[in-house]
């Protein structure tokens, strides 16, 4: 039995108040809160084992290296990697996607095509724009249907994925619409024409059991801070054979094999892509976060997410003047719900809700092209996670009704 109150006891920040109101934290798609266990693991590393990895041969250096590489192994097992060597540490998912784009650029030239979608986070748009500008490749994208899902029929009519396609890079779960895309089928289409499949799994890995092999992807990016881990660390998983073929992304210490003044040779993956001192304590913290998630059970977390999402959609769809962006049912859907209140700017909604203790996000959520496609300047987003309660969803709904009545009492 999933005991959300027991879970919440691990997160001291959830006991805070905002003015006279208890905090209802509904911004987990932005960043999750951190349990004591993660903070304690990082504190213990800094206070008892702190040293640089790989370079220092003393006892502390050996302990730091063991903790760092141990975290790599934990994270690899968590997503079903074939080996720990398929896990590359970055500073966030944005850097992981930039790593993917800049190394795959070595395979691109004029006439080649890269395919993304209009629902992508900017981190999965801008790197590909830059790479296409540099290489002469063409950027193309999936459109969406009116209910916020990839328009696969239109893509098929337009032969979006074709013999010129070299890379397909898509989000697994939209950070705005909540849409969960069917990655395996698209990956199969990409592989059929010899393209590499890249997946932004930042909103997927924290919420559902993940087996990268079942996704059908070649490279998968995700981030620590959305999965009860620390900021400052992200992950790029890659098929080892592909990683071994890709050139370095950044140059410096640790990513080299031999350095001469005239040339250098490079280390094998994953260290080839980890120049300089890595985020050691952050990796330890992410390893502790994985332990925490596995202790709760990812199946239990996914079921809790589904219950909350269904409940929230049921509450929000009854509010007059509120329009949800994206799917209004729980089929193939994540827990992020974006919406607009008629006649009220999302920033005003966000501020009024904050005055009542409800923490949400207002803006375009780093997905401006998607909002433009939907005919919206911006939106308000509520996003739950493993510590969210039904009472917090009720607080959200009550605060939205209050906000609507304050700004537009005739609705």
Largest sheet, in brief, is:
7 strands, mixed
Provide the residue-averaged pLDDT: 97
Q: Strand order across the biggest sheet?
A: 4-10-9-8-7-5-6
The third-level CATH topology of the largest domain is Aspartate Aminotransferase, domain 2
Which blocks of ≥5 consecutive residues have pLDDT under 50?
A: none
Helix content: 25-40%
Computed structural class: alpha/beta
Principal-axis shape equals globular
User: Any idea what the CATH architecture of the largest domain is?
Assistant: 3-Layer(aba) Sandwich
CATH superfamily of the largest domain: Type I PLP-dependent aspartate aminotransferase-like (Major domain)
Q: Give the total of domains.
A: 2
Domain Aminotransferase class V: 25-396
Protein name: cysteine desulfurase
Keywords: Lyase, Pyridoxal phosphate, Transferase
EC number: 2.8.1.7
Summed up, what is this model?
The protein is α/β, with parallel strands linked by helices and 411 residues long.
Could you explain how this protein is built, in words?
It is a single chain. The protein has 2 domains: 4-30 and 297-407, Aspartate Aminotransferase, domain 1; 38-294, 3-Layer(aba) Sandwich (Aspartate Aminotransferase, domain 2), CATH 3.40.640. Helices cover 38% and strands 17% of the residues. The protein has 14 helices and 17 strands. The protein has helices at residues 4-8, 36-49, 59-78, 93-104, 126-135, 152-157, 183-192, 212-215, 240-245, 280-296, 298-316, 346-355, 368-374, 390-407; strands at residues 17-18, 21-22, 24-25, 87-90, 113-117, 138-142, 165-171, 196-200, 219-223, 234-238, 256-259, 264-266, 322-325, 336-341, 358-359, 361-363, 379-383. The strands form 5 sheets. Strands 4-10-9-8-7-5-6 form a 7-stranded mixed sheet, sandwiched between helices. A 4-stranded antiparallel sheet has the order 13-14-17-16, covered by helices on one side. A two-stranded antiparallel ribbon has the order 1-2. Helix 5 links the parallel strand 5 and strand 6. The mean pLDDT is 97. Belongs to the class-V pyridoxal-phosphate-dependent aminotransferase family. Csd subfamily. Its EC number is 2.8.1.7. Its cofactor is pyridoxal 5'-phosphate.
């Amino acid at each position: 039995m999933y005991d959300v109150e027991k879970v919440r006891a691990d997160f001291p920040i959830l006991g805070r108040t905002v003015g006279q109101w208890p905090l209802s934290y509904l911004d987990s798609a932005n960043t999750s809160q951190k349990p004591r266990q993660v903070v304690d693991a990082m504190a213990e590393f800094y206070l008892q084992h702190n040293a640089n990895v790989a370079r220092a041969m003393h006892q502390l250096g050996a302990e730091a290296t063991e903790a760092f590489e141990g975290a790599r192994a934990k994270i690899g097992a968590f997503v079903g990697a074939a080996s720990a060597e398929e896990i590359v540490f970055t500073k966030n998912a944005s850097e992981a996607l930039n790593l993917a784009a800049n190394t795959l650029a070595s395979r691109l030239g004029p006439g080649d095509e890269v395919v993304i979608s209009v629902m992508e986070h900017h981190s999965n748009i801008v790197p590909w724009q830059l790479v296409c500008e540099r290489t002469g490749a063409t950027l193309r994208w999936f459109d969406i249907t009116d209910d916020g899902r990839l328009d696969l029929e239109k893509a098929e009519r337009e032969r979006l994925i074709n013999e010129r396609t070299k890379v397909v890079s898509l989000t697994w779960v939209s950070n705005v619409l909540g849409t969960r895309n069917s990655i395996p089928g698209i990956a199969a289409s990409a592989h059929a024409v010899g393209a590499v499949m890249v997946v932004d799994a930042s909103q997927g890995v924290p919420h559902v059991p993940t087996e990268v092999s079942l996704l059908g992807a070649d490279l998968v990016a995700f981030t620590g801070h959305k999965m009860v881990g620390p900021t400052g660390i992200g992950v790029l998983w890659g098929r080892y054979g592909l990683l071994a073929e890709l050139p370095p992304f950044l140059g410096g210490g640790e990513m080299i094999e031999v350095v001469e003044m005239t040339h250098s040779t490079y280390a094998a993956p994953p260290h080839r892509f980890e120049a300089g001192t890595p985020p050691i304590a952050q990796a330890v913290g992410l390893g502790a976060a994985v332990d925490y998630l596995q202790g709760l059970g990812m199946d239990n977390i996914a079921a809790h997410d589904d219950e909350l999402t269904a409940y929230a959609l049921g509450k929000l769809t009854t509010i007059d003047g509120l329009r949800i962006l994206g799917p209004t049912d729980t089929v193939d859907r994540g827990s992020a719900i974006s919406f607009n209140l008629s006649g009220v700017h999302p920033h005003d909604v966000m501020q009024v809700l904050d005055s009542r203790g409800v923490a949400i996000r207002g803006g375009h959520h780093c997905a401006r092209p998607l909002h433009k496609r939907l005919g919206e300047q911006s939106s308000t987003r509520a996003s739950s996670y493993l510590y969210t309660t039904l009472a917090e969803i009720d607080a959200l709904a009550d605060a939205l009704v209050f906000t609507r009545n304050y700004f537009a009492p005739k609705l």
